[in-house]
Design goal:
The chain is an alpha/beta fold. The protein is built from 13 helices and 14 strands. Helix 10 links the parallel strand 11 (257-259) and strand 12.
């Protein structure tokens, strides 16, 4: 018997048809919010601030981390890129612009991005990709319980600074004078441990501060005048943004140099010892994922790196006319021929 029959001029349904219609109606009601959630206006917007300019391998690592978690840029997540073009003074304005846009979350580097973001907003969640000392800088209350609206990844910067100076001495046993290149706008956590290890190793340090890339060549010339046998480049997003010019200038000055990330060595720097930065930037994507799913930055512990690598560029060593001991090369995680 049909579920529908006519009675006069009307249409009458039996009990089975009524149940089917109710089920269909409820299904449509449930489906509406899901469809709305996929509309462009509902896609979460992430503000990503970088000190340099594209192409940026670390920004690409972060985006890859989002892809690994199932996000599709332009469909399930939108990224508002802001590039400072190597100028740290632009960071506060770029951050304020993202706050005005009311993005759902801001991802920024450790220095100077994280402090600028914290000053700009106390409500929008912030994830810093790397920071040398987030507790000492007052960004978080503690690594375990950050508090506030900010969390991210730390660098173990003091410990790594000590290790880099020790490795320079191992690579060049006769080394007695070392120039240290630093950006005075970054957190001052790298310099004290570097100075302490230098004293213990009997090394004379010459600290060179560079805040304008056009002053780089003059600083390196000063290192040569003081007969520095090697250069230790401290961590700085500013230096990273200008890494191509920095590595080129150091090569022209013929100074064996220790850098803070492999990205310098890949383009001609001599050596680096660091946590694996692409890993850290990919890990930052997991913070974004958790926060978008309802977690609070205050409850997400700041992570510290667990993977470190020593990278040596033998091609650069040959160009500089320096010999790296075989015992040192055996310790290296990667040797670029």
């Amino acid at each position: 018997m049909s579920a529908f029959w006519t009675q006069g001029k009307g249409l009458v349904m039996d009990g089975t048809a009524v149940k089917a219609l109710v089920t269909l109606s409820l299904g449509m009601l449930v489906a509406v919010p899901a469809a709305e959630a996929q509309q462009p206006g509902k896609v979460p917007r992430i503000g990503l601030i970088r000190l340099g300019s594209p192409p940026d391998p670390l920004a690409e690592a972060f985006v890859q981390g989002l892809r690994d978690l199932g996000y599709v840029e332009g469909r399930t997540i939108a990224i508002e890129y802001r590039w400072a073009q190597g100028n740290p003074e632009r960071i506060p304005d770029l951050t304020a612009e993202l706050v005005r846009l009311k993005v759902d979350l801001i991802v920024t580097a450790g220095e100077p991005g994280a402090p600028a973001a914290k000053r700009a907003t106390s409500t929008i969640p912030i994830v810093f990709t790397v920071h040398p000392d987030p507790v000492g800088a007052g960004l978080v209350a503690s690594l375990a319980r950050p508090g506030g609206n900010i969390t991210g990844l730390a660098l173990m910067s003091p410990e790594l600074s000590e290790k880099r100076m020790e490795l320079l001495k191992v690579a060049f046993p006769k080394l007695s004078r070392v120039a240290v290149l630093r950006d005075p706008r970054t957190a001052p956590t790298d310099l004290p441990p570097t100075e302490a290890v230098a004293r213990a190793l009997g090394l004379h340090l010459q600290v060179l501060e560079v805040r304008d890339i056009n002053d780089l060549e003059a600083a390196l010339a000063a290192a040569r005048r003081e007969r520095a046998g090697a250069l230790n480049v401290l961590g700085s997003p500013f230096f990273f943004a200008h890494r191509a010019r920095l590595v080129e200038a150091v090569a022209k000055a013929r100074l064996p140099a220790m850098y803070v990330t492999r990205e310098y060595v890949d383009i001609g720097g001599l050596m680096s010892y660091a946590s694996h930065f692409p890993d850290l930037f990919r890990r930052a994507a997991t913070y974004v994922d958790k926060i978008l799913k309802g977690a609070k930055p205050a409850d997400l512990p700041v992570e510290q790196p667990t993977r470190f690598e020593l990278v040596v560029n033998l091609k650069t060593a040959k160009a500089l006319g320096v010999t790296i001991p075989q015992s040192f090369l055996i310790r290296a995680d990667h040797v670029i021929q």
